Amino acid sequence: NSKYYHMSSFTDKVSLRLLKSDKIAFIRHNTRHLSRIYPSGFRINSSNFEPHHQWMVGNQMVALNWQTFDLGMQIDQAMFSVNGRCGYVLKSERLRNPEIISPAINTHLPTQTLTIQIISAQQLPKPKDALADEVIDPFVEVELLIPGADATKKRTYTITDNGFNPTWNETLKFTLNCEEMSLVFLRFVVWNEDVRSNDFIASYCIPVTSLQFGYRHVPLSDFNGEQYLFTTLFIRSSLEFTPA
Length: 244
Fold this sequence. Notes:
It comes from Racocetra persica. By secondary structure, this protein is an alpha+beta fold. The chain has helices at residues 12-21, 23-32, 52-55, 71-81, 93-96; strands at residues 7-11, 34-38, 61-62, 112-122, 138-145, 152-155, 167-176, 185-192, 199-207, 214-221, 227-241. The strands form three sheets. It has a four-stranded antiparallel beta sheet, with no helix packed on it. The longest helix is centred in the first third of the chain and has 11 residues, at 71-81.
């Protein structure tokens, strides 16, 4: 019953509760009104939620703690990089047009297989607290981030004592079945394996729809989101429909 000019503000926890209890009604509401989602006050360490879960129901203004470059901010950066970081990306027609919203969401969707071959890495840096003579033991973790679902994570084996040009030649496969392909993200994280806890080396996040398939070098960034000058992953990727 809200007027067209009314905007509602929800914490991320309240919005997720609405998403789970009545997803279709939430999408329909956002075809007529603006919704703003902001981090819950319980996030005292300035952590972020994952914004693609909020975009999947059409929430237009999804606010994050920009001082923390965690997974949520990396997804946000990837989302708005597709349009030159101008701050605006058009929602899909299904989220804009109330006439085509159907309760039969997530049914009869074609299944696709995303194949990522992690070939090698180039000039990986050491962790920030590493000793001068320390040599890293890197492995790569790949995350598939689908809105409304838990992340799927797969990793390579560990290369011992080689951060300059480690070679894996390992293939990871993911299954995709989502009505909002524009909101599916892929995240690469390079770790240094340690007996106590693994050390973060570098990462990169990209929408699956922005992947240029085939052989590519993936740019990598530090924990603040600053891109390394010469550090990359060399990969091969493909996306194919799975036979019924």
